[in-house]
């Protein structure tokens, strides 16, 4: 079966590799977004999917929006169906009608929960304990099409959005391959989504700021959800201060929200309930370091507190 693959970020690389290696499938071309400026020097850099497609010797199409020329290029691939994983743009009706069997999207949530660009991040921030991936038929809405199949997993104690996305990218790869074949063969009839939908818009930098007045579990959920991107942060002495994983410490009390204390070689910060323990931090202009090393360097200050 001839398949066009559309995707952009690193998360979309494992499904591409899996489809390319599947003897039942021939990836005839890859569609990804155009090279984007990266870093302080704004160097134009190909997407992760684009780089991997070239390494695999696959024909590559780059586009940030659908044009008549792109539609012609898509038709010329000879694909009968398309696979989509985080391509990064809504496809209009003319594009959705190009392939005989449509476009099958692998989305990292249990739809209709968490429709949008940041499903895993939003799930962790909300404290969800069950996560998963869904394949569905693309339509003109935002992740609203009928469902083909799902795979479920549990959130682990050490999980961040980065680790969950990596895991679901691999767990969802065989799901995507089977869904393409099932839809094209007619073995599976996609079913309308059921349940109350919830939005998962892209995270802003402001949402990654820790609110120390929140209860400890909510603080932990926020940090886990925004790690590694856009990255959890707070303010210390008027400058941005980055945080890695924090661990709720329900047995540690008596610390005011945002205040930092060292107790028995552990670094705790007060919240709206009990404390959380810091693991690693990155002060402004410095490299990441163990929280205890940073906190010991602040012990001569009268008060150590985050804003």
From TrEMBL:
One of its GO terms (molecular function) is methionyl-tRNA formyltransferase activity. Belongs to the Fmt family. It comes from Kocuria salsicia. (6S)-5,6,7,8-tetrahydrofolate binds at residues 109-112. SUPFAM superfamilies: FMT C-terminal domain-like, Formyltransferase. It is an enzyme of class 2 (transferase). It catalyses: L-methionyl-tRNA(fMet) + (6R)-10-formyltetrahydrofolate = N-formyl-L-methionyl-tRNA(fMet) + (6S)-5,6,7,8-tetrahydrofolate + H(+). Residues 4-177 form the Formyl transferase N-terminal domain. The gene is fmt. Residues 202-298 form the Formyl transferase C-terminal domain. HAMAP family: Formyl_trans (MF_00182). This is Methionyl-tRNA formyltransferase. Residues 188-209 are annotated as: Disordered. Its EC number is 2.1.2.9. Attaches a formyl group to the free amino group of methionyl-tRNA(fMet). The formyl group appears to play a dual role in the initiator identity of N-formylmethionyl-tRNA by promoting its recognition by IF2 and preventing the misappropriation of this tRNA by the elongation apparatus. CDD domains: FMT_core_Met-tRNA-FMT_N, Met_tRNA_FMT_C. Keywords: Protein biosynthesis, Transferase.
